[in-house]
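Internal QA ticket QA-208
Title: Verify multi-chain structure generation after dependency bump
Assignee: T.L.

Test input:
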Amino acid sequence: MNRIAVVGASGFVGSALCERLFFEGINFAPFVRGTGNAARVSRLGIPIRRLDLLDSKAVLDALTGFDVVVNCSLGDKAAVSRGFHNLLLAMERLRTSRLIHLSSASIYGVEPKPDCVSEEGSPDPQSNQYAEMKLRQDESIFRLSQKGVATYILCPGAIVGPYSVFSIGLAEILRSGPMPLVDGGANPSNLVHVDNLVEAILAAARSSSGAGERYFVNETRPVSWRTVLEDHARILGIQLEFVQVTTDEVRPFLSKGPRRARLRDQGRVLISPEFRRAASKLAPIGWINDLASATFGHLPPRTQNRIRERLQWPISVNGSRPALPLSSRFVTAQVRAYYQSPQKLTTRLGWTPPLSYEAGMETIANWFEFAGMVDSRARRA
Amino acid sequence: MGLSKVKPVRLGMIGCGAMTEIAHLPAAIRSPIIEVTALVDRDLDRANLLRRMFGCSARTAARLEDVVETLDGVVIVTPNHTHRMLTELAFEHGISAFVQKPLSTTYADAIAVCELARAKELVLTVGFQGRHFASVKLMKRLIDAGFFGKVEGFHCEYGVRGGYTSVSGYNLSREQAGGGVLVTMGSHYLDRMIYWFGEPREVRYADDSYGGVEGNCKGQIRFDNGIHGSFFFSKAIALKNKFSIETEHYVVELPAMETEQITLFPRALPGTKMQMGASVDGGNIDYHRVELEDFAHSIRSGSSPVVDGFEGARSVKLSEQLYRCRTQLEEPWAWYRNLAMAGRGQ
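Actual output:
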């Protein structure tokens, strides 16, 4: 295989890809923006290169000499727009032969239309900012492919596996109490194991055909949410209690856009002790904080109390049990009714997932145990 | 006479990276007994940036030698492999040193600078901020007083996903950092173990390095007094971040960043939780300032700092002991690693 540049190597997928390339002895170079999150790559003892995608010249210099670029980068708005543009521009100028880009199944929306079962269906991000951004990136990549760069767009759903934030979050919500199960948990989960996604990247890197296309990455058969939730509960040693809910009940919680914090919410953040304590470590803000504290301290106690009352969070008194977490992503994701088959990935790029669903669950179980998320005695039992 | 009535102690920040920016420099500026008179960094632009950011009047320089006449002490917050060289340079000019942990990348280096400090009668202190926490000191007093009864064992874990990005990137290099998570994060907790439990005798250790700096490590330590415990440090996983100590009368818990209180679960009263605090003002103490003021007091009075060089060197020695007996950490989920290892006959 030709020389591979992994851009965004310190992220979850980038790290998993680097580990696989390292252990398979494949020639690659990891690029990271910051070093703070690079623990899984820095353990490998290979040079890690720092790359700011916003610096177009640095991008051009960094990617010179690579045949394949895998883009796993994320980041802030500037990085995913201007930085991404710099990346594509560099590839175009360098005539890099291949770009493999991680997009997302979310481009079909939080409640997709029936034609989402095929990669040829019409994406519709439904005002979700992340999905809109991913779709814009996809469109830029299609344009790049017309300029002679072989491009491969991979669209996974939520990614599970060792170190997965999704897997950790799922464990946390299962531990936290009764779990809402939407429409009996019959909908397909569309979750993909990170090692199978990495295999899809390698398949795209190896393939001599299939460029200029979008590919779903998923389990080779639909796995229902009920199965996923029950299996996670089992490996965590949790007694799972489902609460049946319907799609109609969850629909109001489908996030189709970011909720902006209201002015009052922002005020609460500003006066919170946590914020002030952190901000006061910056000397100028520390002085302002000290001044504000001193001024507040000179106010009459009644006025102080009034100000405090106005800015307190509302005190909510729950009924007999806490409200169900219907707005959680682990609940809203259950509304997606369609399975996005990876058939095209298999037939065009020759992808064969190394892990079955069951084998993937075993890796998650092993990792949960390593990370102290499961009592090993409970697991043995 | 209180220190605030006399001239402030003149400190220079050596290394103007992320830690200096977010912790040491603002803390020093807030202190009435410290005057920051120099900001030194090989990257002079970075030193000038911090001077502008904090509006301080310190001189900036690329070399310590250029500002020695303005200093009583230096706060060395640079990549770990430079600690010995910079400390010796400061001592050559009669300047005391605060070295952000670890004191050095090897125990031999640590002892060398300790001996030099002693010979020159200069202050050498190590930046183990946690040693100043009221909760950590209280734990030590209670253990020593036998309040908990016999200490039977402990488990310590500290892990965060990611962490701060160092400006220099030294933390990606074993040569520059002296190790991985065991040194960069774990040394804080190794230091506490030594402070509370004494001299380590036997150790077992495994990490996930393949030539680079480890991101996960696990180990066990038995101390001279028979106390035995385990630890887990990670830069890739968010862990529970606390000490749990099993004792005859209590299970004692101390969250890693809890500065004021310890939590007790009495064995005689199952289901009961007690909290015990040491300080009267309820926290909100800037412990970076506390440790810098401890250094300043020592320079002024000649008294020993809370963590002197020899004390700070003990965790360097323990890290070396642990690395010496290193084994490969098992990763049973990493089938591709295991296939590769089997293919290489390992």
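Spot checks passed. Chain A has 17 helices and eleven strands.
Status: verified.
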